[in-house]
Amino acid sequence: MSDGPRGVDVSSVEQQLGYRFTDPALLVEALTHPSFANEHPGAPNFQRLEFLGDAVLGLCVAERLFEQHPGAPESELTWRRHEIVAEAPLARQGRAFGLAAHLRVGNGVRADQDRLLADGLEAIVGALYLDGGLDAAAAFLDRMVPVTSEAPARNPVTILQERCQAAWKRLPEYAYTERAEADAAIVFEVAVTLPDGTRATGYGRSKPSARRAAAAAALAGGAPEPSAR
Q: Which of 3.40.50.720, 3.90.70.10, 3.30.160.20, 1.10.10.10 would CATH assign to domain 156-220?
């Protein structure tokens, strides 16, 4: 089954997904970039499905991390999730899937761009969720975006430094304060400021842990991917 000019081979994609759509139009929509829709009036585009798929992806990964790391603090779970759902790892999974061969894009647009592949993968997740519920989306993610407890989590301070350096050629700045809590334990508060002025705050029983929490908060708030600028 195909759909219109430069159509989608729905059967082939379904075979790769291991899922048959009740509403194949959802899959066609998930594989249609806005650049194609702009050139073909009336064609759908995947932006709404991408929005939904991003949320479903975050939920599924968060649930698995929560189960696999029962003693991990929120900051560690946050950066572990970010390392899985960020643009670069999603683009790698999109390439492994062969997604570029199925995406409908406008003339002159490269379907193998990291951002486009990541967005397309999220759109597929959104389509699976609408057609088959959370189980269908989770089954696909378990194959395409594996969450393994053995994988070490990179330090969010390092990740944030790399991203700021790539985006602005400058490093984030950290500021520390001490706050005495009611139980007399010292809690450190760290504020990190990105080169664009964005700020995030973290807390910890030591300066390093507070610094990691601040960096994780900045990443969770949308610190730029290296290709963002």
A: 3.30.160.20
* Given the residues 54, 114, 119, 131, the one annotated as active site: 54
Q: Would you say 160 and 224 are in contact if contact means Cβ atoms under 8 Å apart?
A: no
Q: Which CATH superfamily is domain 10-144 in?
A: Ribonuclease III domain (1.10.1520.10)
196 is catalytic: no
CB 177 within 8 A of CB 146: no
* pTM score of the predicted model: 0.70
Q: Fill in the amino acid letter for 43.
A: A
Q: How confident is the model at residue 220 (pLDDT cuts 50, 70, 90)?
A: confident
| Cβ-proximal residues to 133 (8 Å cutoff; 6+ apart), any chain | none
pLDDT given at position 5: 36
